[in-house]
Amino acid sequence: LRQEIENDRNQKQIQDLKGGGSSTPTDRDDDRGKPRQKSPWSVASPNVGDDEDGEDYRLYIDIGREDGTWMDSTWGSSGKRIPLTLDIRLVADRLADPVLAEKMVKDNTIGKSSKVYALETAEFARLRDGFDRMQVYGGAYRIDLANGRYTIRMLVQVEGTKADQNYVYGDVSIPKGCLYFSLPCFGGRINQLSTKEGPVTVRQTGWHTGWRRKESRILGVFNAKPIAEARRKDPY
């Protein structure tokens, strides 16, 4: 009986995350209702013909120096930027790998946090309108509730930009490791992400908090668009 109650609670949390429904078929089909061909820019289901329950988004990311960042003073001082996009899927019914879950920043000390769920990504982020790319290895997300407001916190693992790309990007680079994203989400639902701009951060060791430890540093900004809307704007 105790196990049945726990299962019911897990199902309720999943339904709350979904917002009462899952992604529409058009998120993963083309305009004629046929399955989309595999693309390095698109999220692929783990198994052929297997659509996971969740919500698909395209992240429009703009990497470069921002006011108040703790990045090294030489990083991005030229004003150059790296614009890129990344397609993701917020999986509603599968928990994240425990190793990834441990990499989430534990900073919601005054509120409540959901379990950490899986976040699938395209194989590559799309840089320079597809003339360049960066490998991505999936991620994780959770929903925080603090002071009556819900926030989605996401991380994705990236290969980062490489030394042979410096001639294009100059003094701006994306470090290898985890990129962190956060946005308001209405009602704590993954189909209700805010359209506002949110921060992109990395975790690096420094002294800005008063002692030497891992700290969050602003790497840029981003916004998230539902995949169907994004493909009407940028059809790839």
Could you characterize the architecture of this molecule?
The protein is mainly beta and 236 residues long. Helix content is 14%, strand content 39%. It contains four helices and ten strands. The protein has helices at residues 2-18, 98-102, 166-169, 227-233; strands at residues 54-63, 82-95, 112-113, 117-121, 124-127, 132-146, 149-158, 177-184, 198-206, 213-226. Strands 1, 2, 3, 4, 5, 6, 7, 8, 9 and 10 form a ten-stranded antiparallel sheet that branches. A hairpin with a 4-residue loop joins strand 5 and strand 6. The longest helix is centred in the first third of the chain and has 17 residues, at 2-18. It is globular. The model is unreliable at 21-27 (pLDDT under 50).
- What is the CA-CA span between the terminal residues? 49 Å
The gyration radius over C-alpha positions equals 18 Å
The dominant shape is globular
Q: What fraction, in percent, of the residue positions are helical? A: 10-25%
